[in-house]
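hey
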């Protein structure tokens, strides 16, 4: 069966006993892992119990398809229902997963973790079509969902959040559930019991997050601030950020600029165009964002997005150093931004 993102939390909190296998997939791997952990605890009190928990690497299942059925049908030495977890699943193990969805055996709950899967994915289709299985998408938190995560985590210590701080947190968290949880736990420890998080508190605790580094890189490239861009790229390397992650973050920023620019071209005011973006532009960056929309014509923004897409393809196919491809692409965008800014003077 197919579970919508909006109904996922309710389903995971109390999965039907008739469901024997659950596929968790999507771009937010932190959320995939968090939901897998919740499902595991719903069946087994101790998630480290070696008799009731079985982890099967996807590579092993590919070589030994019968292992899934064997583990699902096994009886725990200490009694109780078992959990079988399969991580990093891809369509390369579609055959044994599809067969299990059609002919489940034993009473174990099978939890399958995967990255983003297209509607054409064989394993996604198998779980969506089976009555005894469920496929649950795990998308990055945003809007109300992210606000709930922030309130839930900080609420454990009765901590309130000011409007400015909430705006900052909504803008700089959400790309990965586990990263968001980690940053919020750090903020919770920083604040102690009770009190209200101010903007300065939020910046002090979350300001060095990977999400903010990516955001700063995107703004530096679109503004033509070459010195800051090179500094931030060095910082990104030290933080272990992958070249493709950087390219995608910058592409998202240019797509937002393109959307705003297109709205202005259609006759909307600059403020209306920017306020319509979701997630909203962080208020401290609004003036910079507004200046970038003015400097970049829609056509040039389209070309910039295309160059970022091509750079990602090159990273995946050419064998060239990905960091070099990424750096050259962003420096070219920065140089273009600087030239556009000079032309407006």
């Amino acid at each position: 069966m197919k579970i919508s993102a909006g109904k996922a939390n309710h389903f995971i909190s109390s999965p039907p006993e008739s469901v024997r296998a659950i596929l968790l997939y999507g771009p937010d791997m932190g959320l995939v892992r968090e939901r897998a952990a919740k499902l595991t605890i719903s069946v087994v009190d101790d998630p480290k119990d070696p008799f009731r928990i079985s982890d099967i690497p996807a590579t092993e299942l590919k070589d030994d398809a019968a292992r899934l059925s064997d583990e699902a049908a096994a009886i725990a030495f200490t009694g109780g229902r078992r959990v079988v977890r399969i991580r990093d699943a891809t369509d390369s193990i579609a055959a044994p997963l599809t067969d299990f969805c059609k002919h489940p055996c034993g009473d174990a709950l099978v939890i399958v973790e995967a990255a983003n899967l297209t509607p054409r994915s064989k394993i996604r289709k198998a779980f969506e079509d089976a009555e005894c299985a469920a496929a649950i998408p795990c998308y990055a938190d945003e809007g109300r969902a992210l606000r709930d995560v922030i309130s839930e985590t900080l609420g454990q210590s009765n901590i309130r959040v000011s409007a400015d701080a909430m705006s900052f947190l909504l803008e700089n968290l959400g790309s990965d559930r586990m990263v968001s949880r980690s940053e919020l736990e750090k903020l919770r420890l920083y604040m102690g019991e009770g009190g209200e998080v101010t903007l300065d508190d939020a910046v002090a605790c979350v300001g060095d997050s990977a999400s903010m580094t990516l955001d700063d890189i995107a703004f530096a490239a679109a503004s033509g601030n070459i010195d800051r861009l090179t500094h931030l790229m060095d910082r990104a390397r030290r933080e272990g950020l992958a070249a493709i992650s950087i390219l995608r973050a910058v592409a998202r920023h240019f797509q937002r600029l393109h959307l705003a620019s297109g709205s202005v071209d259609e006759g909307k005011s600059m403020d209306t165009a920017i306020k319509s973006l979701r997630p909203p532009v962080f208020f401290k960056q609004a003036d910079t964002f507004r200046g970038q929309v003015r400097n970049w014509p829609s056509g040039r923004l389209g070309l910039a997005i295309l160059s970022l897409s091509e750079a990602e393809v090159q990273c995946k196919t050419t064998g060239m150093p990905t960091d070099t491809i990424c750096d050259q692409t962003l420096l070219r965008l920065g140089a273009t931004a600087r030239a556009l800014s000079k032309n407006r003077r």
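The first strand starts at residue 21 and ends at 25. The two ends are 59 Å apart (CA to CA).
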